[in-house]
Structure formats: C-alpha cells, structure tokens
Amino acid sequence: MQKYWICLLIFALLCGCKEPVKIGAKTFSEQLVLAEIMAQLLENENIAVKRVIPYGNTRDCIQGLTSGQLDIYTEYTGTGLMILGEPSLSDREKAFSRVKEQFANLGVAWQARLGFANNYVLVMRRDQSIAQKIETMTDLTNVQSLRIGCDEDFTKRPLDGLSAMLRRYGLKTAQTIVEDDKSILYRALLDGEVDIVIGYSTDGQIEAFNLKTLSDNLRFFPVYEAAPIVHNKTLKRYPGINNILGKLAGLIDEKTMRAMNKQVELEGVHYRDVASQFLRKNKLIPEEENKKTSIKNFPLRLKILTN
Hints:
This protein has helices spanning about 1-15, 30-45, 60-65, 75-85, 90-105, 125-130, 150-155, 160-170, 180-190, 205-210, 230-235, 240-245, 255-265, 270-280, and strands spanning about 20-25, 50, 70-75, 110, 120-125, 145-150, 175-180, 195-200, 210-215, 225-230. By secondary structure, it is α/β, with parallel strands linked by helices. α2 packs across α14 (about 270-280) and α4 (about 75-85) crosses α5 (about 90-105). It is globular, with a radius of gyration of 24 Å. Mean pLDDT is about 90; it is low at about 5-15 and about 290-305.
C-alpha cells in the first residue's frame, strides 16, 4: 500500500513539472496590460505562468519568441509585416492572412485578433492645427522648421518608421527628439517643445488633452491589429492555450484599450489591477472573494507548558 502511494505521488509531481508559460511584453503600457491579461487568464485555467514584463523592443521580443526565451507576447499585423521585410498592407484581412501564413514558417502561430488596431498616428496640439490649417500629414510640408518627437523604435523601423515616412511625404525636420517615455513626449508637445508627436491611436493622452490626429492621406502606415502570437512548441506543451486565448477574440475595441491605457498612464492605476478589472468585468476570471474573518483564518496554536 505504501508503494502505491509513493508511485501516485511521483506521478502527480511529474504531471506538475511542465515548464511555466513565459509571457513577454514590449516596453509600453498597452503591452504590459495585454501581457497581464493573458497571464491572469492562463493562471485561472491552472497553467503556470512566468511573467517577463517588459521584455524589450520589437526586435527583442521576436528574437525571444523564436529562440524559446518567450512563449507568448502580443504583436501587431503591420509590425509583423515589417519583421518579415514585406510591404505594408492596408487591407486588414490580407495583412492578417499574410502574417499568419509567413510566421508559421518561423514556428510561430498568430492567434485570434483582440478586436482593435493600434495604428501609428501623428499628433499635434489642436490650437496649432487650427492656426496653421493642418488636417493631413501632407499639410506638414507647409510647416517651417518641423520638430518631431518619437520613440527610439520608430527611428529604427526601415519600412514604416521615421525615415521612410519623411521620404513618402517629402518632409524635412529641423529637430527630432527621441524619447521612449511617452509621458515626456506628450509633455513636450503640450509645452511647445515639439510640433508633432508620433503616437499610437490607443494613447489615452489624445482624448485627455484634446489633441488632433492628422490624416494619413497617402496611406503610408499599414494597419496594426493586435493579436497574441505563440510559439508552436508551447501549443504542443499546452494544447488548450489557443482556446483559452480565443476567449479574448474581438473583446477589446479601440475605446476599451484607450481607456485602459489612460488608467495606467494618467490615473496611476497599476497595470495588473487594470488587467484584473477587465477580466472580471467580462466574467473571464471570478470576482474577488470577500475576505471574511473566521476561526478558519486563525490556526489554533497551543503552547504546552511543562514543569
């Protein structure tokens, strides 16, 4: 009988020895929130998770995924095309189909899209856009000594980054401020230190500060729909992951994502709390149980006095 229980214990231990799922993220708030949403969702299904949040920029994350340092992170279709060195596609379905097909050759599976696109947008102060009659990106050719603020990643993107954008629109800049902290970039815009910030369509600052987004009238930028991407080896190790992540399909629209970003960046709410609130609101994880004081919470400890 003792031998039976030992064998059963060994079997249970072996079943629980699966390597945890390593979830990564890029360095901005949206990525942190999405990574945490996936982490908590998987944990709710009793899948062990290791958070690597943040992991790095786009290049770091894709290298981490293909090398096995990461199992999952959220990517965007337009960025996926850039990684592949392929031309941009403005058609959402064609872009998703293309990245899904080509990433399969890298051993990576695109999961169902989350429901929003986080597109690059050129943002300026509304009062300045009215005063200078600027509505489109082409209108920026009339701005003398154009000053642009952007993050480092945008300066390094060969197909959909700063240099390619300036060439496409025939723009010349007097100054480019490179800063990865989005709050600093938007503060520089509000203070008049830059004329334009390269932002994201889901940035909470756009609505909060009543900023103007310029029309990409030459359709330079591709569409950037968000979706989890997972290494195929991870799907073999945990076959149910695609169904679990599938619960998020189409659930996060642009308004919802912008509101979550605003909570983190402008209201000081921790991204883990924002993720939990989202999951509970959509009934994907249970509500927090009220902590009740009972005798069960206080294990009885007896001190035996001996003479």
